[in-house]
């Protein structure tokens, strides 16, 4: 039975090292998760009206969000993992069996940085098939909870499920330096969220 994880993806700066990146690089040794048959990753950078799942059948292209397209230093990042169309169809099947009436398939979208950035550090060999599924920011937490509940059987099928994002997201002009202490409002929210999860609120 595979565990599921909610992980941050590192800031795509010119540096090759920061605390998040070092954690992700040490993933296999520190966390000790067995090598999965495939990976389903929920990226905060793929937002759609309805659940949409990748059924990309080839080696993934590495994609960048439009705001990052002019940053030439990103060109060095490649993650040519194979697609996982069978997993994508299984995801769609499970969601529809659980009452989700509309689930779209996407056969052309490459992996965004919410997927390829953590994976290239965690599994640099890029030999595990990867499927990505979108979030729906227009829907509430119950909607996403039900998605997770519907997809739980994948854990027994050797699929590593990863939620990739962050509890908060800094935006310009308030982005602090990489090694700076967390801003007070971010720390306050992070603490509240942790307590809410641990106490079952």
UniProtKB/TrEMBL annotation:
Pfam families: LigB. The keyword Transferase does not apply. Keywords: Dioxygenase, Metal-binding, Oxidoreductase, Zinc. Residues 14-196 form the Extradiol ring-cleavage dioxygenase class III enzyme subunit B domain. Gene3D superfamilies: LigB-like. Its cofactor is Zn(2+). GO terms for molecular function: ferrous iron binding; oxidoreductase activity, acting on single donors with incorporation of molecular oxygen, incorporation of two atoms of oxygen; zinc ion binding. InterPro entries: Extradiol_dOase_DODA, Xdiol_dOase_suB. Belongs to the DODA-type extradiol aromatic ring-opening dioxygenase family. This is Extradiol ring-cleavage dioxygenase class III enzyme subunit B domain-containing protein. It comes from Rhododendron simsii.
